[in-house]
Amino acid sequence: MKHLKPLLLLPILLIFVLLIEGKKQKLETGDIAFSSFHSKHNDSFSIFTLEDIPAHTKIYFTDSEWNGNRFGIDEGNLVWNSGSQSILSHTEIEFSDINNTPKTNIGLVHGSLNLNHKEDAIFAYSGESIKQPTVFIAAVSNHAKSYGTLINTNLKEGQTAITYPKNTFSAIYIGDLKDVEKVDVLKSLNDFDNYKLNQFSDGLAKK
């Protein structure tokens, strides 16, 4: 019986390890952040990883407004699969031509987002299916009202939800984030002195 006790403990320890590993696979709020946004003509955006992204991770993107409990059904959706290899922290992932035939430099993407030139937001989240978020990971907007609300998302404006100055149709981060700590990455991405910004002025585009 004494020899059996260690054997009986092994399955319990194995289950415990698997549970811990499973927990690590789930993305949390702030594990990615938006690093660019373009809502004029060929819409695009990019994200920056602040944690390693496991293989076959699925992230949903929508430009629907959030009402505190659910998304609207009148906007677009993108579904991104990270691919068969894990993605290291501090990697930039680009999404282009998202209003036509979306493309990405890493993984696979399908769907579409047709961003409003002056007022729109993108939410990134994980969940069981489109429009059913379980974890809000990040958000970006060119107008604070475009989120709808951030209630019940765990996102914080000026941190995990980046809101560019009003009338911005293009924002490209131009700094170096390679060796920057996670908390400082979010600070840098919310500092608009670190961007090349293009904005509308008096109904016209200003560069």
- The helix tally amounts to 2
Strand content: 35-45%
**Biggest sheet strand line-up:** 6-5-2-1-11-12-13
Kindly name the structural category: alpha+beta
Task: Give a summary of the structure in a few sentences.
This protein has 207 residues and is α+β, with helices and mostly antiparallel strands. The protein is 14% helix and 35% strand.
Explain what this protein looks like in three dimensions.
The protein is of the alpha+beta class. The chain has one domain. The protein contains 2 helices and 13 strands. The strands form 2 sheets. The chain has a 7-stranded antiparallel β-sheet with strand order 6-5-2-1-11-12-13, with no helix packed on it. Strands 7-4-3-8-9-10 form a 6-stranded mixed β-sheet, with no helix packed on it. The longest helix has 22 residues. The protein is globular, with a radius of gyration of 19 Å. The termini are far apart.
